[in-house]
Amino acid sequence: MINIMKDIYIQDKRLWQVWPGKNRFCCSGKCMTGPKSDLLYYIPSIAALIVIPNTFFIFAAPYIWQKVTVILPILSVILYLLTLSAYILTTFTDPGIIPRKTITEIIDHESSKIDIMSIDMSKYCSTCQIFRPRRSHHCKVCDNCVEIFDHHCPYINNCIGGRNYIFFFLFILNLTLLCLTNIAGCFIFIFHDYSISGPAKETFIKQGTVSLIIIVIIIVLTTMIGILTTILCLHHICLCFTGETTKERIKGEDIGSHCYFCKKKPKKFDPQQILTEEQFKKIVEGPVFIEMSDNENSVSN
Ligand SMILES: [Zn+2]
Ligand SMILES: [Zn+2]
After folding, report:
1. Separation of CA 30 and ligand 1 centre (Å)
2. Which tops the pLDDT comparison, 111 or 293?
3. Is 145's pLDDT higher than 70?
4. What is the pLDDT of residue 206?
5. Could you tell me the distance, in angstroms and rounded to a whole number, from the CA of residue 186 to the centre of ligand 2?
6. CA 180–ligand 1 middle distance (angstroms)
7. Ligand 1 centroid from CA 9, angstroms
8. Neighbours of ion ligand 1 (CB under 5 A)
9. What ligand has the least distance to the C-alpha of 137?
10. What is the recorded membrane topology of this protein (predicted)?
């Protein structure tokens, strides 16, 4: 019985398997992310996010916990977990992709239909062959139109749009606070030890020269990241008040009466949607695949 069910599942053809954009899907279409071309930026970012805070936890946090206060290491761990969770959610959440005309025509799914009232007739996307809703833009990297498009972030490996903006904002906010906490922790680690006189200081210097060098490196790297994220965080806090996206702010576009946060859009397609043999064939053989020469990247296991 289990084998029969397994065979039926394997035979199902899903929308994510024939997706015409450059986005990649994982976990059988449950999660989606940006194209492979971002990995050059994404891998160093995730490595820095894992290595730098964990080096702080290994070298500085135990000393602060034992000799100064338990509050700072606990706060740092909480902020780190929040930062990492927000980062993963931003990377693997659909930013608000609008399916191309070919997809909506073949599938005819209720959720994929664009609200006529929101369409801007002066904004036609020749790749997706649709009149785009207001505030949406075509991301050249992902090769899809995205609703309430903010920007494409290669360090996150995804577009930042109406559906994942809140996770992105929480990521930069928590990362900024994490940087400030860890820099404070590093300075406490250095100066608290040097304030101790007598044998304790000698013990620290003997055992801790390597630790001290590592902590100085952490301070330099965390300060560099902290300055960038603080600027980014302040920029997005300003945008929260004006209701604009980064693209609208740069281009000076009028956003009308639409509010950035109040209008969270529902998902416009289901990557796990089961396709009929005919629908699968139409999408594979249809004009979308003929127009896009390098779409092999869009299908990933
Ligand atoms: Zn488009
Ligand atoms: Zn993108």
Report:
1. 22
2. 111
3. yes
4. 37
5. 36
6. 39
7. 31
8. 125, 127-128, 138, 145
9. 1
10. Multi-pass membrane protein
Domain residue limits, the chain: 36-95+151-270
Asked if 259 is an active-site residue, the reply is no
Closest ligand to residue 164's CA? 2
| Whether the Cβ atoms of residue 232 and residue 134 lie closer than 8 Å to each other | no
The active-site residue out of 145, 153, 159, 186 is: 153
